[in-house]
């Protein structure tokens, strides 16, 4: 794994809220991770979340045609766990965000199927059970992500302005711009990335993805990371019922079984 981030990438991440890192994985690593993701997704069948306590299933609505979404695959795949929760990526997300210690929030495979719908503009952190200006996601391309098949787009600098209001990933992909009209004048940047490369984004950076206008799949393996010490904000998100019911506002989210520390080890 090529984990070296240069100063330019780090400065770009802090200023614009995202960074592109080509060739994160070697050819062999890409082959290994892609096979592990395909296998874990197949194992889940219609089930959305790995790990026993969740009952959500794929449906056939608009959202189900944005992407095939499978969460917490690390719980059923040691290979995915090694890549997404390992110290290499752990150190990178700490280096980019400037946070000393990070935990996994959740991972997810996001597969934009042939002719899949666009991913509406949104922020990530407001979905989650903690609120932080320093949460970060990695999005690893398992196929070449192109303008044609649904690469990501960002509003550069939006993380500096965003609060924790959000818009859903719905049929009107521009709803977020009604919440934050300021974003309209800031422009957008497309981040096509070859398979094995990745992009990182802050949990408050506005982003979305185009439709898949091709007959091939656009597979990605992603994960969101939570600064160690983050506290419960009242939202369930991916928390199992048992933990959600027991949680009180302000509790530190440090359950090692759900949110293992990825850095330092
Ligand atoms: O892959 C996509 O279409 C959306 C990705 C995304 O929203 C994310 O990784 O946070
Ligand atoms: Fe997102």
How are the SSEs ordered, and which strands pair?
Blueprint: H1 7-16, E1 18-21, H2 27-44, E2 68-71, H3 78-84, H4 87-97, E3 102-112, E4 119-122, E5 136-141, E6 152-154, H5 176-179, E7 189-191, E8 198-202, E9 207-209, E10 218-227, H6 241-246, E11 261-263
Antiparallel strand pairs: 1-8, 2-3, 3-10, 3-11, 4-9, 5-8, 5-10, 6-7, 6-9
The structure holds 2-oxoglutaric acid and fe (ii) ion (FE2).
Quick structural gist:
This protein is 21% helix and 21% strand. It has 265 residues and is of the alpha+beta class.
Please provide a written account of the structure.
The protein is α+β, with helices and mostly antiparallel strands and 265 residues long. The protein has one domain: Jelly Rolls. The protein has helices at residues 7-16, 27-44, 78-84, 87-97, 176-179, 241-246, and strands at residues 18-21, 68-71, 102-112, 119-122, 136-141, 152-154, 189-191, 198-202, 207-209, 218-227, 261-263. The mean pLDDT is 97. The site of fe (ii) ion has 3 residues, from loops. 2-oxoglutaric acid binds next to strand 3, strand 5, strand 9 and strand 10.
């Amino acid at each position: 794994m090529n984990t070296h981030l240069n100063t330019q990438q780090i400065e770009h991440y802090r200023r614009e809220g995202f960074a592109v890192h080509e060739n994160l994985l070697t050819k062999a690593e890409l082959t290994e991770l892609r096979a592990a993701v395909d296998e874990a997704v197949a194992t889940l069948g219609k089930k959305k979340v790995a790990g026993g306590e969740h009952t959500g299933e794929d449906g056939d609505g608009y959202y189900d045609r944005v992407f095939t979404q499978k969460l917490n695959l690390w719980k059923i795949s040691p290979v995915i766990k090694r890549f997404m929760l390992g110290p290499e990526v752990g150190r990178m997300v700490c280096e980019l965000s400037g946070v000393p210690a990070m935990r996994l929030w959740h991972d997810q495979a996001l597969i934009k199927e042939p002719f899949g719908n666009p991913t509406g503009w949104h922020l990530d952190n407001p979905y989650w059970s903690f609120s932080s200006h320093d949460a970060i996601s990695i999005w690893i391309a398992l196929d070449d992500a192109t303008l044609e098949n649904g690469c990501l787009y960002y509003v550069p600098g939006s993380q500096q302005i965003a609060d924790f209001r959000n818009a859903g990933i719905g049929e009107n992909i521009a709803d977020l711009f009604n919440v934050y009209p300021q974003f309209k004048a800031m422009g957008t940047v497309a981040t096509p990335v070859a398979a094995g490369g990745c992009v990182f984004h802050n949990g408050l950076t506005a982003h979305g993805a185009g439709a898949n206008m091709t007959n091939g799949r656009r597979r990605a393996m992603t994960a969101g990371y939570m600064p160690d010490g983050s506290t419960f904000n009242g939202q369930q998100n991916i928390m199992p019922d048992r933990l959600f019911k027991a949680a009180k506002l302000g509790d530190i989210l440090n359950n090692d079984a759900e949110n293992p520390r990825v850095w330092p080890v």
